[in-house]
Amino acid sequence: MNASHFLSRLTDPIAAIGRCGQFLLRMIAGIRPGNRLAISSLQQTYLVGARSLVIIMICGFFVGMVLALQSVNALQSFGAEDQASLLVGKSLFRELGPVLTALLFAGRAGTAVTAEIGLMRATSQIDAMELMAIDPVHRIALPRFLAGLISMPLLAGMFNAMAILGSVVFAIGVIGLDPGIFWGKLQNSITFQEDFLQGVLKSVVFGSLVSLVAVYYGYTSKPTGAGVGTATTNTIVVSSVLVLIFDFILTSFFA
Amino acid sequence: MRANYNVELASGLFLLLGIAALVWLATSATNLGNAIGNDVYRITGLFTNIGDLKPRAPVKVGGVTVGEVEDIKLDMQTFEAHVTMKIARRYSELPNDTSAAILTSGVLGDRYIGLEPGGSPDVLQEGDEILITQSAIVIEQLVGKYLFNTSGQGDEG
Amino acid sequence: MPQNAVELNNLSFSRGSRTILNGINATITEGSVVAIMGPSGAGKTTILRLISGQLRPDGGSIRIFGRDIHQMNRSELFAFRRQIGVLLQNGALFTDLTVFENIATPVREHTGLPEALIRRLVMSKLNAVGLGGTENLMPHELSGGMARRIAFARAVALDPSLMLYDEPLTGLDPIAVSTVSRLIRETNDALGLTSIIVTHNVVQMQKLADYCIIIADREIAGAGHPKDLADSDNPKVRQFMNGEVDGPIPFRYQSEHQWSLTG
Hints:
The structure holds three protein chains of three kinds.
Chain A: H1 2-29, H2 35-48, H3 53-76, H4 84-122, H5 125-131, H6 136-175, H7 179-189, H8 192-219, H9 225-254
Chain B: H1 2-28, E1 40-47, E2 58-61, E3 64-75, E4 80-88, E5 99-104, E6 111-116, E7 129-130, E8 132-134, H2 139-156
Chain C: E1 4-15, E2 18-29, E3 33-37, H1 44-51, E4 59-64, E5 67-68, H2 74-80, E6 84-87, H3 99-110, H4 115-128, H5 144-155, E7 162-166, H6 174-191, E8 194-198, H7 202-208, E9 211-216, E10 219-224, H8 226-229, H9 235-242
Parallel strand pairs in C: 3-8, 3-9, 6-7, 7-8
Antiparallel strand pairs in C: 1-2, 1-4, 4-5, 9-10
């Protein structure tokens, strides 16, 4: 009894990964290229993308300023504060942009999607859809998943753009670094092929992870208020952990 | 219908903003902004010492980037560094007695190749070699030279 | 001679160790309005979910228009469900879509009709439930009775031959109760449907239903015309129909381990 209980604690997470994978396959099997899926996915970008925009822009701006402050502080002791933009750019494009955006995205959009789908489950909207012979996985989960996939790289782009602006405001406006050196250093040290594209790829991977977790927990939530609450908490915990794990895997893969 | 339209407007705006941000980042915060394009011609040069010059380092004339380092090899006859540069076709009027020097931007900055045009009426063609080259100044050698020179002076005096 | 629309043959279903239904036999003839009644928790909704194919029985079979629905695979079942309209408890309207899109959803999904025709079809259904002009409202802007009627319009949008209703009258004001019951009856007769209603509203069913099936204690306790059931010999049926506290249906929760003072 106790041994099997212990064993199931080990195997449960693996089974959960399996269920998530099956869910993903079920969604992918439902892809019928056409206007309807495209339109509903684009409409969902409002919920998952547009409504996360403000928080992500504000956070990006402040992260940029903090990065500039820390870089200049650390480099000043070598008299190398001209290199600040290199430090800011590399850490933003490769790590902070995609990872912080993904964590904010999980908190803002992921939970919203889980709660919305969970509420549809609780108010039998998903039952009703099945009874109409419409597969809810294709109709409800898939467009939200695709919208997350589209939105994440764009949000990470907004985050990085605002962070660069924030660092420019702080480094040039407050500390008084030379704008030409700052921008020149940035352009010479950040490569499009490596830094930029790696960041975009990371944000696509994180976007699909967070979206998959969000639609999965929403779809499988218990049809009660408490069930929806648990599902929402699970979404943010599981997707944050997954984002950090996959960040390590992807980074060591590129390096 | 109106509420729906506003939602569409907001997500459309979001998509445009996001794409604009990515394009702006790619063109003005990465090396894509100073990419020289595909319309190029190649010239080479032999340097005794290139310091820490790396591929994709800029090639400049009078401070303006005209191209980049494409490839660095060791020439097995002379044991010198064989550097291939690609120069944008729009800067094709460089005289064939142009000299090349490996310079540093700032004290701790990156290495780049500075070209100094001569006065010849003939221009550099695809595959031509720059004959007058100046190696990188390596700080350790500089310090060594300085020490050697001062000790020599001491002997004389 | 009307055919059998639905046949339940020796149907049984259990959740874990708890038996919910045991040996249910019933036939529902085409064109009739049948009420399935019984105390809360007696397994009425379970029967409905078995008929719609959402649940699989542990024993027995269900034939709808002569076809055993639990022998079908998923895609056959989905295709077959186009003939079945279901009105769930509380309507279950899609909260993110307008009234128009709610009704249009099943039509768009299952017919390749052009947009103009879909519009006409949806508007005719809306007018049939007396709610023309609400097409651009969102579900949260509707009253309970209106939402129920919209859900009804959505359920009949594809002109099904069998309608299933889960507590269609619960939580409505008396006027809305009459409106919805009249809709159920009139639609059934006008379109020649068969309707199965799960409810515990005895008074309304005496007016509305042609035939009643009373479920109590995992079994069919009684069946027949609602007017006859009130005078049934079965004490369980009499207790339910007349709403008495004392009777064979217990007031207390029947635990598996009964407390015993003497034990």
